[in-house]
Write a structure and sequence with these properties.
Length: 429
Amino acid sequence: MVDAIALTIGIVIGAGIFRTPSLVAANASSESIVLLAWVVGGLISFAGALVYAELASTFPHPGGDYHFLTRAFGRRLSFLFAWARISVIQTGSITFLSFVFGDYASTLFPLGEFSSAIYAALIIVVLTIINILGVRQGTGVQSALTAIEVLGVLLIIAAGMIAPAAAPAAATASTPASSSFGFMMVLILLTYGGWNEAAYVSAELRDVKRNMVKTLLFSLLVITTLYVLINWAYLRALGLDGAAKSMQVAADVMRLAFGETGAKLIGTLVAISALTSANASIFTGARTSYALGRDFAPFAFLGRWSGANGTPVHALLLQAGVSLTLVLFGALTREGLGAMVDYTAPVFWFFFLLTGISLFVLRRKEPHQERPFRAPLFPVVPLLFCTASAYLLYSSLNYAGKGTIAGIAVLAAGALMLPFVNRQSDRSS
């Protein structure tokens, strides 16, 4: 169970916690609202993880959401989900992480006006080439990189304690009169992202019934505590307005506590963290595209595996092409990372909502299926997750920007293909 807890913490804590807090602060009216929102984010993540834990333990399958949605709603919806993964969700996540890398790499070696976008594009190209060549990352390296991420969080918490406290500031034009709580939660749940993957890990525990809730509860309790503390550190050192205006919030706090050396150190750690997360997203995303090519005839070219290097080359190249297009979109709109949040959030929460609903559908459709783990307090916990997902879907649409319109348009393009899609084989059962 200890190994599962450590792995869960490693999956969830990522580069986003070093960047999205400034976006959250920009949409908050007070520091207490910021900290409350991060606690609520932990509770929603826990409810969602319990839902995914039941699905993962009952229907174990490497396809995850793809498999659950197919069993619950049929093959056309699974096509739409696979389309969304390759065109919006996974590629948007890769681009988001690449912009995080670009923001912090720019603090070390700035490249001009479009420095962040240049770095983001460069890292997508380099990591795609590495994956095409079939270079594998050992588990020891992954563990070390996870330790670097946690170390970065602890360093910033310490820096927040050491740095002189920011002077209380009166409300300014840049401080909203009221909090955009829904959009804050969209950003926060993005930063908690990975708890669904953690549920798959927990589903492989030896004594699932006994250990599942303990593992998920303890893991997310540790993560929530760290996230609340690091946001307290940001707010104590920079104040709400200072955190909202910061483009490299972690580096700014470290600079106040330890000078320029501290800023460069955390910039390096965050860049490594973003690099690691982006590489993992590129690796897993290409496998989803490969599955799409294997299952649906119009995308058969994606289902070809390179025998020489053991990689889905065409899937990796298409994924890189979409991601680079999104980098260009982020650069042209001058919203960068924010544009990627807008682009992915509505589609992301739409399918999360459907996955939550699938638990109810599958309990009804397959009542006799053995369930090693059941979400506790049914139907309260699944309903809480579905309600939260619906609210976050509404919020991501309510605060729509250019990126939101683009993401919905791309999903609609996939929906228009549904009448013409024929599956090559019956592989979903």
